[in-house]
Description:
This protein is an all-beta fold. Among the domains are: about 150-215, no CATH class; about 220-275, no CATH class; about 300-365, no CATH class. Helix content is about 0%, strand content about 25%. The protein contains no helices and 24 strands. The protein has strands spanning about 5, 10-15, 60, 65-70, 95, 105, 130, 140, 170, 180, 190-195, 195-200, 220-225, 225-230, 245-250, 255-260, 270, 270-275, 295, 305, 325-330, 340, 355, 360-365. Strands 13-14-17-18 form a four-stranded mixed beta sheet, with no helix packed on it. Strands 1-2 form a two-stranded antiparallel sheet. Strand 19 (about 295) and strand 20 form a beta hairpin. The protein is elongated and about 95 Å long. Mean pLDDT is about 75; it is low at about 1-25.
Amino acid sequence: MRNYLVLGGIMLLGAVVLSVACGDDDSGVSCPAARDCTGRVCGPDPICMTSCGDCPGGQTCDAASGTCICTPNCSGRECGDDGCGGSCGTCPPGSACDAAGRCTCTSNCTGRECGDDGCGGSCGTCTPPATCGADGRCRTDCPAAADCTGRECGPDPICMTSCGTCPTGETCTSSGTCVPGACNSTTCATGCCEAGTCMPGTSDDYCGTGGYPCGPCAAGDSCFEHWCVANCTPCTSSTDCTGGASCGRRRCDGAAGCYATADASCTLIGGVPCPEVSAYDTCTTSEECGPYADCYRFADGTNFCGRRCAADSDCPSPPAGYESLVRRCNTGATTPRCYLECSGPGTCPYGHACFRYATGDYGYCA
């Protein structure tokens, strides 16, 4: 029996072998020779639908453009890199981000020979009659040198001896006065809480703000504007750096400092900060945001300079021309940052879009 193949209305004997391939438009082009992956690194080519490649781990392919898109991943992380150059958050003063993306307490005894190490441990004890002073040094002139002038509570600023305690229900402020309420963001809005006492939050040993617990800055960091930030050594070449650090230039102003790692930041170089930029402008690294903000990644993948805050009042005003936008502090986040609240499309600065909240209402600029 003979076999027949009907093609385009023409009957052919089965002995004839045909080699016909279809492109995605049924035009009968010859594939895979006609495949075209020009400008594409992944997904199907638009002619033969053959693969142009695969994306590396952590990235997904946009089939329309054939480009790999990084997918941020902060699952189970509260700090550190999100895998796409953005941040999952920053740690409060006195703690550091570990490899698992968790904030852990960092003990610090640099320049100290006694007293607390910031994590419940000790930097050492003094041999009597010497006592531990406020600077973590053993002093022989204390408590005689203690000065409680104008203070009714908390430690004196020299010998750390008590100037008195507050009645139940009151908190000792950083200036040594008793005020109603516990030490929190209300009674200690511009300082940090240490053992129930509001401290100024501006020293390397007691750094913080917003009523959060005080913490010592890690070695190589300095307390700047109530926050522990990297204070790098100025350099002209890597021979000026120690401990495996290398000399690199800060992106915000080109100043050269000793970077501990390739992805580290030098918010201060020799104590000098980056120039301040708008707290809501776009960014790629935290250095570009100056010393007052971090480069923060929203859930939609966009980056902006999010100023650290404890309340809406901490956030700077919107840029000129956008005064109607409302400044907000996302106080529910692990590390609260400022953002602008918008009312609809076209109301945000810097080309940002006005995104909706989960409730469907507008929205935030990002």
